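Spend some time on this chain, C-alpha coordinates included, and walk me through the fold:

. . .
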Amino acid sequence: MGLHGKQSNGPKKAPRRDARPHSSVRGITELSAPYFDLVNGGEYWTNPCDSEREAAWQVWRDRIADRWHRPGWRPDGWRVFDLPKLLMLKRPWRTDCPQVWADPKRRIFVDEYVWALRETSAEERSDIEELWRTWISNADEDSKPDVEFDPPAWFVDAERKATPS
Protein backbone atom coordinates (compact mmCIF):
# COMPACT_ATOMS: atom_id res chain seq x y z
CA MET A 1 0.00 0.00 0.00
CA GLY A 2 2.25 3.05 0.40
CA LEU A 3 4.43 4.64 2.98
CA HIS A 4 3.09 5.72 6.35
CA GLY A 5 4.35 8.37 8.74
CA LYS A 6 7.17 10.81 7.95
CA GLN A 7 8.15 9.02 4.78
CA SER A 8 4.68 9.27 3.23
CA ASN A 9 5.27 12.72 1.76
CA GLY A 10 8.68 11.99 0.27
CA PRO A 11 11.75 14.17 0.78
CA LYS A 12 11.27 17.65 2.17
CA LYS A 13 11.50 20.30 -0.53
CA ALA A 14 12.89 23.79 -0.20
CA PRO A 15 10.20 26.40 0.37
CA ARG A 16 8.78 28.07 -2.72
CA ARG A 17 10.49 31.32 -3.67
CA ASP A 18 7.44 33.42 -2.82
CA ALA A 19 7.02 31.70 0.55
CA ARG A 20 10.13 33.41 1.92
CA PRO A 21 9.89 36.96 3.25
CA HIS A 22 10.88 39.74 0.84
CA SER A 23 11.59 37.25 -1.93
CA SER A 24 8.94 37.94 -4.50
CA VAL A 25 7.92 40.99 -6.39
CA ARG A 26 4.55 39.33 -6.90
CA GLY A 27 3.82 39.73 -3.19
CA ILE A 28 3.96 43.54 -3.40
CA THR A 29 0.67 45.34 -3.69
CA GLU A 30 -0.06 49.01 -3.99
CA LEU A 31 0.06 50.79 -0.60
CA SER A 32 1.79 47.82 1.08
CA ALA A 33 4.93 48.22 3.22
CA PRO A 34 7.34 47.25 0.41
CA TYR A 35 5.52 49.60 -1.98
CA PHE A 36 5.97 52.55 0.41
CA ASP A 37 9.59 51.52 0.92
CA LEU A 38 10.08 52.10 -2.83
CA VAL A 39 8.25 55.43 -2.63
CA ASN A 40 9.70 56.99 0.52
CA GLY A 41 12.41 54.66 1.71
CA GLY A 42 11.86 52.72 4.87
CA GLU A 43 12.71 49.62 6.79
CA TYR A 44 11.07 46.86 4.76
CA TRP A 45 14.39 46.00 3.11
CA THR A 46 17.32 46.42 5.48
CA ASN A 47 19.65 47.08 2.56
CA PRO A 48 18.29 49.81 0.25
CA CYS A 49 20.33 48.31 -2.63
CA ASP A 50 18.86 44.81 -2.17
CA SER A 51 18.54 42.96 -5.49
CA GLU A 52 14.94 42.02 -4.72
CA ARG A 53 14.16 45.66 -3.97
CA GLU A 54 15.68 46.59 -7.32
CA ALA A 55 13.55 43.94 -9.05
CA ALA A 56 10.48 45.37 -7.32
CA TRP A 57 11.52 48.87 -8.41
CA GLN A 58 11.75 47.72 -12.05
CA VAL A 59 8.21 46.34 -11.86
CA TRP A 60 6.64 49.27 -9.98
CA ARG A 61 8.68 52.23 -11.32
CA ASP A 62 6.21 53.53 -13.90
CA ARG A 63 3.12 53.10 -11.73
CA ILE A 64 4.80 54.83 -8.78
CA ALA A 65 6.00 57.68 -11.01
CA ASP A 66 2.49 58.16 -12.44
CA ARG A 67 0.76 58.10 -9.08
CA TRP A 68 3.19 60.19 -7.02
CA HIS A 69 4.38 62.72 -9.61
CA ARG A 70 5.37 66.13 -8.21
CA PRO A 71 7.76 68.57 -9.90
CA GLY A 72 11.32 67.99 -8.75
CA TRP A 73 10.50 65.04 -6.54
CA ARG A 74 11.51 61.46 -7.22
CA PRO A 75 10.74 58.28 -5.25
CA ASP A 76 13.39 56.59 -3.15
CA GLY A 77 13.73 53.80 -5.71
CA TRP A 78 14.75 56.38 -8.32
CA ARG A 79 17.32 57.90 -5.97
CA VAL A 80 18.82 54.50 -5.11
CA PHE A 81 18.71 52.74 -8.50
CA ASP A 82 18.22 55.22 -11.35
CA LEU A 83 20.13 58.31 -10.21
CA PRO A 84 23.48 56.48 -9.79
CA LYS A 85 23.12 55.12 -13.34
CA LEU A 86 22.40 58.63 -14.63
CA LEU A 87 25.41 60.01 -12.77
CA MET A 88 27.64 57.43 -14.44
CA LEU A 89 26.64 58.68 -17.90
CA LYS A 90 29.00 61.06 -19.58
CA ARG A 91 27.64 64.57 -19.07
CA PRO A 92 24.13 63.84 -17.80
CA TRP A 93 23.74 67.50 -16.84
CA ARG A 94 22.58 70.42 -18.89
CA THR A 95 25.43 72.50 -20.27
CA ASP A 96 24.25 75.65 -18.46
CA CYS A 97 24.48 74.16 -14.94
CA PRO A 98 26.07 76.47 -12.41
CA GLN A 99 29.69 75.94 -11.45
CA VAL A 100 28.71 75.60 -7.76
CA TRP A 101 28.10 71.92 -8.51
CA ALA A 102 31.86 71.42 -8.45
CA ASP A 103 31.94 71.89 -4.65
CA PRO A 104 31.85 68.37 -3.10
CA LYS A 105 30.84 69.74 0.34
CA ARG A 106 27.69 71.38 -0.98
CA ARG A 107 24.44 69.57 -0.21
CA ILE A 108 22.32 69.11 -3.33
CA PHE A 109 18.63 68.27 -2.93
CA VAL A 110 16.80 65.94 -5.31
CA ASP A 111 14.83 68.75 -6.93
CA GLU A 112 18.07 70.42 -8.00
CA TYR A 113 19.39 67.16 -9.46
CA VAL A 114 16.13 66.72 -11.36
CA TRP A 115 16.25 70.32 -12.60
CA ALA A 116 19.79 69.84 -13.92
CA LEU A 117 19.33 66.53 -15.73
CA ARG A 118 19.14 66.72 -19.50
CA GLU A 119 16.30 64.19 -19.49
CA THR A 120 14.05 66.55 -17.48
CA SER A 121 11.41 68.18 -19.66
CA ALA A 122 11.25 71.95 -20.02
CA GLU A 123 7.78 71.85 -18.47
CA GLU A 124 8.96 70.09 -15.32
CA ARG A 125 11.99 72.36 -15.09
CA SER A 126 9.65 75.37 -15.26
CA ASP A 127 7.44 73.83 -12.54
CA ILE A 128 10.49 73.33 -10.31
CA GLU A 129 11.57 76.95 -10.80
CA GLU A 130 8.06 78.14 -9.96
CA LEU A 131 8.14 76.02 -6.80
CA TRP A 132 11.51 77.56 -5.85
CA ARG A 133 10.08 81.06 -6.42
CA THR A 134 7.20 80.20 -4.07
CA TRP A 135 9.68 79.02 -1.44
CA ILE A 136 11.65 82.26 -1.82
CA SER A 137 8.56 84.40 -1.34
CA ASN A 138 7.47 82.28 1.65
CA ALA A 139 10.96 82.56 3.18
CA ASP A 140 10.86 86.35 2.75
CA GLU A 141 7.63 86.42 4.77
CA ASP A 142 8.75 83.86 7.38
CA SER A 143 11.52 84.56 9.87
CA LYS A 144 12.48 80.85 10.04
CA PRO A 145 12.29 79.31 6.57
CA ASP A 146 12.26 75.54 6.13
CA VAL A 147 15.92 74.66 5.53
CA GLU A 148 15.10 71.16 4.25
CA PHE A 149 13.31 72.59 1.22
CA ASP A 150 15.32 75.69 0.44
CA PRO A 151 15.88 76.44 -3.23
CA PRO A 152 19.53 76.44 -4.35
CA ALA A 153 21.50 79.56 -3.40
CA TRP A 154 22.52 80.21 -7.01
CA PHE A 155 18.82 80.33 -7.99
CA VAL A 156 17.95 82.66 -5.11
CA ASP A 157 20.79 85.00 -6.10
CA ALA A 158 19.69 85.02 -9.75
CA GLU A 159 16.07 85.74 -8.77
CA ARG A 160 17.04 88.57 -6.45
CA LYS A 161 19.23 90.15 -9.17
CA ALA A 162 16.40 89.82 -11.70
CA THR A 163 13.83 91.35 -9.35
CA PRO A 164 14.60 94.92 -8.26
CA SER A 165 13.93 95.64 -4.56
About this structure: Residues 14-22 have pLDDT under 50 and may be disordered. The chain has six helices and no strands. The chain has two domains: 26-88, 92-158. The first helix runs from residue 33 to 40.
